[in-house]
């Protein structure tokens, strides 16, 4: 049985990924500052309280795992609009260093549609409010993607569209060609389904950065 570390596991996509990975028969190590409050009980679930910006916490969590799924998120706040953030890039640097030291190769990381070269595929109507509300966050996500690309890991970068709380449908679209990239909505549960599939699937390793929409 493979052991999967999920970073940012206490809510959102991370929590849905914990559920899906357990359903698919993986042993899950759920890492978050409030991991002890995760509302799931399972014999193959270990809850690890830790800070993604503390190298010692991450290094301890990474030891002995077979793959890492990074699902960091930021709560909506005024600071997201007015201040620069380095949460995603700094946490990813720490994670990659820890993985390389521990010999863990596979990293599946969620950024979002609008990060990196996907931003130019947004319509003008979408881009204006996006830049105002999320521009600083996604600028750091773009740095995060660059750090991952430059690493020696076997990586998958996943860019979901606008997230909803809907159920898992399995009928989402995987847009892996830049000419097809577009924004749309997708449930967190469907994103989690795709993330867990990447533990075994090599189709998107190291080059494609698929966008996901429902």
TrEMBL record:
InterPro entries: NAD(P)-bd_dom, NAD(P)-bd_dom_sf, Polyketide_Oxido-like. GO terms for molecular function: biliverdin reductase [NAD(P)H] activity; riboflavin reductase (NADPH) activity. Pfam families: NAD_binding_10. CDD domains: BVR-B_like_SDR_a. Residues 8-201 form the NAD(P)-binding domain. Transmembrane segments: none annotated. SUPFAM superfamilies: NAD(P)-binding Rossmann-fold domains. It comes from the Bacteria. PANTHER family: FLAVIN REDUCTASE (NADPH). This is SDR family oxidoreductase. It comes from Rhodomicrobium udaipurense. The lineage of its organism: Bacteria, Pseudomonadati, Pseudomonadota, Alphaproteobacteria, Hyphomicrobiales.
